[in-house]
Amino acid sequence: MKIAFQGEHGAYSEQAVFDYFGEVESLPCESFDAVFEAVNNGRSEAALIPVENSLAGSIHQNYDLLLRNDLRIAGEYLLRVRHCLIALPDVKMGEIKKAISHPQALGQCADYLRKRGIQAEQVYDTAGSVKLLKESGARDTAAIASRRAAELYGMQILEEGIEDNAENYTRFLAIQKEAIVPASEAKTSIVFTLKNQPGSLFKAMSVFALRDIDLTKIESRPLQGKPWEYLFYIDFIGSTNEETSKRALDHLGEYALTLRVLGSYARFKG
Amino acid sequence: MKIAFQGEHGAYSEQAVFDYFGEVESLPCESFDAVFEAVNNGRSEAALIPVENSLAGSIHQNYDLLLRNDLRIAGEYLLRVRHCLIALPDVKMGEIKKAISHPQALGQCADYLRKRGIQAEQVYDTAGSVKLLKESGARDTAAIASRRAAELYGMQILEEGIEDNAENYTRFLAIQKEAIVPASEAKTSIVFTLKNQPGSLFKAMSVFALRDIDLTKIESRPLQGKPWEYLFYIDFIGSTNEETSKRALDHLGEYALTLRVLGSYARFKG
Predict the structure, then answer these.
(1) Which residues of B does the annotation mark as catalytic?
(2) Could you tell me which chain A residue has the CA closest to the CA of B205?
(3) Which of A121, A158, A261, B63 could form a disulfide bond with A85, CB atoms 3.0-4.6 angstroms apart?
């Protein structure tokens, strides 16, 4: 089985692929578009895409791609992002003067680096910083990346979990061509648009509240080309194979300008 | 007047500072934390922080900082992100073989570059890519960054607006120590938490729907440390100086576990 992800070998997304799918072949793709294309043209059976990070927010680009492509969500995975301080195999912590990584990773470890007097230097990618460090052979430099990136390049992990905020999670969705029937407790993801008039979202939410359906995500997003319309993402507990969910979606269809079910899938259990 | 922003001179955030505040002194800060700190300790009178991008989503980190700091939102600004293809002054379009920029900017211009057979190479920053290009003196290379970055380094803009998706906007908030009383049509931003029980959000939204108050943003965010609680961001039309808004917030206080008004400010008019 081949699973597409965005990034280079050693990226956090690749780690999520192995955590979620087990022993599969990973297919690195340059962009999110290329990830969707790999599933569309059959180069990979499925893909794992990040849709939100607890610190950085939702990744609208991947919701756009879910809307533009005819693929289904088949599962979800929550990755705890644990940054590692990575050095050449025989280097000691005391030798490190400089850390290189993607700006976001450096930002997430800013306190840690400051307290130890380590200078931060930005490079384009987390996994790429480990590759660069290996090539340079610099003993005074550490890279910040995933455990997997360290192992891939045969490097040493000086310390793991150096992020300042431990509540750093990325939520991934597994996508494929065919819809699934979830075996365990299910979640369903939908996207819909409403007319921008006071109370329209309230009506839309009543279809869930009236049926005691629990929401796990709600997000509005202005449609920039259409200043009076909004796009909403909702995740709710339930599957489109269940009568209550079906009725709620039928009811929502009465208010929504457009409505798309992205998939029902097993809820992630930590 | 001195206004803090995150990034280097020439960053999109700096462009937003001048668009919104006019002729002021800009204060570049390394991180969002440093931006808030600059306002707290009086090094700058105010700051402009990005809180959402139409393609990339909300920037939770800045909402966290709004909650942790005792500052007020005093205004909003919507920046249309227009990427420029930037080269040395006398270079012709036909000479360009390679483009350097931040991965996000390269991704947003991927189609444009592919059609022209231009190779993408990642560097850490958009404004930084112009600086790098100037230092290297490479005639076969272009940087992708803001108009302002090109002007700052005395470089040539070969083409402006090369992003694949024109609907690329970043929303900025102006923050300062003192709350303001908005003169024109106002917007108010609030953050609150609710117990995770079916229908709790529906109740919370009823306080606005029952008073015909229009919402312009709603977003839920799981509190990772507290798996049964959610944080909600809502923006609504109205000011805390108006009776209807005051009553709605009082009413919301009956349901919410915590409630924080981030500020009332003039709504941005494009």
Answers:
(1) 170, 172
(2) A202
(3) A158
